[in-house]
Amino acid sequence: MARNKEALLLLIDVGPSMHNVVPEIEKVCSMLIEKKLIYNKYDEVGVVLFGTEETKNELTKEVGGYEHVTVLRDIKVVDGDLLEAFQKLPRGTYAGDFLDAIIVGMDILIKKFGTTMKGKKRLCLITNAVCPIKDPFEGTKEDQVTIIAEQMTAQGMRMESVVVRGGLSGDACQGVLDENDRLLNIFSRRTRAKLSYVESPISLLGALRTRNISPVTIFRGDLELSPKMKIKIWVYKKTSEEKFPTLKKYSDKAPPTDKFATHEVKVDYEYKRVEDPGKVVPPEQRIKGYRYGPQVVPISSADWDAVRFKPEKSVKLLGFTDAGNIMRHYYMKDVNIVIAEPGNQRAILAVSALTRAMKEANKVAILRCVWRQGQGNVVVGVLTPNVSDKDNIPDSFYFNVLPFAEDVREFQFPSFNNFPSSCQPNDQQQEAADNFVRMLDLAPSGKAEALQPDLTPNPVLERFYRFLELKSKQPDATVPPLDDTLKKITEPDPELLSQNKGVVEEFHKSFELKENPKMKKSTRRLLREKPSKSPEGEDHALISVQSANPNSNEHTSAAKVENIGDLTPIQDFEAMISRRDSPEWVDKAIKDLSNKIYDLVEDSYEGDNYPKALEYLIALRKGCVVEQEPKQFNEFLRRLCKFCQEKNLNSFCELLASKELTLIPKTEAADSEVTEDEAKDFLVKREPMLE
User: Can you give the pTM of this predicted structure?
Assistant: First the structure.
């Protein structure tokens, strides 16, 4: 049996009041099966429908009752046939009784697994709970639900309830809704049950947990408040980025008759000398090196192991600070949750007292953490109190990693207060912006918040899973268009925009975005070169309607430049890379100006063309930084310097070194593959030519 194997039974309401939601349920259940086929192929899944016209379950045959409950598929190992079942779920004709469905589901799990797999048997109920529940033969409905909940706990079952409400549930009696909500809350209080209310297809898509991830501690040990005061804690990951499933290399070269062939491709690497490509260099003759200035310093594995910092596993309190001193943008990496050791009452009381004291004083704690023995680094982070509002859930902490000085990126920008009044919004513009923000409020009063992280799936991953399932059936299938539900996650609500068309138009009229023909430097370079000057006039791209000249056609001629001429090559180059009617203009401009630089250097007599070539090269570098094309410039500069060495034109390389004109590093363009040290080394390597 797989370690994380799960038995899941889906209880789906297909009654008349759910017909408009069933298509979305088909999508989310299909997605659940797709993920299980990738990550949990040994899980067992069954499907029970309620609200159906027919009745098909064992309890009806054995004891009677439980009408209009149909077992669509008995619980068994997940397979592709189950995906086919969700392509078109039957639509029921009777009001669904979710209590009957829960009892039928529990009966299936008990008969199949008995007392085994405790904690790994899960019921998932999807309903709008708008239909009344039948009265029991004895006692009240609340008593009946309590008995069911106690039996569920005794059998080690968990339940997840997804209740569809809002515009998806249609009209319903408020008294019935309140009663059913009260019954479902009993399950939530008395069992390991999760209750979620959804009001949109997006929320429904994210409410059903489609992948079962077992929680694993990253630390178990002491929280050291002082050498003589320690609290037993466990640390889990609270959030962690979900990545694409690992794609492996497979080969179809295995014999078709080999039933046990894995088709996996194994990759081996060989290291060879440049001077002797036919000879393989063994591991004992290889060593890693680190660049230090112009030289490479060899560091053996023994040296690296000796220099590594090897702290002891521990979590230690460094002190407390006001919560306002820790900025939100300091948070790095994933979020961890810190709880007291389960079952340790003294630890639970100590953690609760500490969290409440910190909450009351508005303080956070700074910790030094080494999660495991042999960890090569130390983490410093902030511990934020999380006071629970439920009686059955103890208090805890959230832990976020904080940056060291080397991790912080500082960008200084001029204050908006220094701008002239003509560049600051007037009252009418400010009001238009305020209305625009209010229009796109994701949590308007009287409505559920849209795009809640807990209920919003990653559209990129979901699209991948759907395409993978399609590809398994149709190897030649093309990528389908984005699903409408997923599109709502990635794009603004078109209905909301159409309803507030006037607000959008008013905001559009209040501001005009114009191209700035003279702003040809990256923001970082502009601020470094003009730290004290407030951007005015032509240095601004966003110009208000009142200050813009609607009759200006200053730059229209520049947009028509198609070649770099000899009269104003730099202006022609800047005009070409500014064109946005085709991405080809940028590549063409870079290529044409590069050729002109080549010609100037090659045709130079005693360096008479060098100043002009340098001027062109500076313009080319600036353009490549602005357009985020560092690779093209770096490759050209390497070729140019190699050309100069071959043609005995080293004096031009000396000129570049004296002007400190070098490669474009990552600090200037994010797409660059050149580090700042490598860019500096490019000049250092040419220093001997200056002698």
Answer: 0.64
